[in-house]
Specification:
It contains six helices and two strands. By secondary structure, the chain is mainly alpha-helical. Helix 4 runs antiparallel to helix 5 and helix 4 packs parallel to helix 6. The model has no long low-confidence stretch (mean pLDDT 74).
């Protein structure tokens, strides 16, 4: 049995017009697939089928509040953590105190002379504020040893940020000199 073959011919009457003639064969229609699924039939009767969920293989068992896979697999819960004695203890470290040198370092990116002011902090000592009243108005609830510890901690943080100001200022000066030399060499 032979099937008809489509033939086309092009008439070349002129370059501006082209006509295609020939016979066109109809394409066969796709086969229908029938799927029998008891879940689909039950849910179709209840009006609970969502074609998108069905396409992606989502199983809809009961209600929307119990569809989570976490609700169904209670027996597959991982074992509890190890006993408390074997776990490391983490301590909460207090945040660094806010210091003038910290602000000068950060704002030095907007105005680089602030780094110079931050570097001068290395030359100044940090002392307890002067007492305006006999009861020592600065942290009256602290003992003298606690006040000295706070001052030592703040001085350590202040010096750390002051050194960062020094290094930022040196870096800025080196970059500025490098750019200046490059511009001078390019225009020479």
């Amino acid at each position: 049995m032979s099937s008809p073959v489509a033939s086309t011919s092009v008439s070349t009457a002129s370059q501006s017009q082209r006509t295609i003639t020939g016979a066109h064969l109809p394409l066969p229609s796709p086969m229908r697939v029938i799927v029998h699924d008891s879940r689909s039939a039950d849910m179709a009767e209840q009006g609970l089928i969502n074609p998108i969920d069905d396409f992606f293989g989502y199983t809809f068992n009961s209600s929307r509040t119990q569809d989570s896979r976490h609700d169904r697999r209670v027996s597959e819960v991982p074992p509890p953590y190890a006993e408390e004695s074997g776990l490391p203890e983490y301590t909460l470290h207090a945040p660094e105190p806010v210091t003038l040198a910290m602000y000068l370092f950060k704002f030095g990116f907007l105005f680089p002379p602030f780094w110079l002011f931050g570097a001068f902090i290395l030359l100044s000592p940090l002392r307890e504020p002067p007492a305006t009243t006999p009861s020592s108005a600065w942290m009256p609830e602290k003992t003298e040893a606690e006040k000295q510890e706070i001052i030592a901690n703040m001085r350590k943080i202040e010096v750390k940020w002051a050194w960062r100001c020094v290094f930022a200022l040196i870096s800025f000066i080196l970059v500025a000199c490098g750019v200046g030399i490059a511009i001078w060499a390019a225009t020479k």
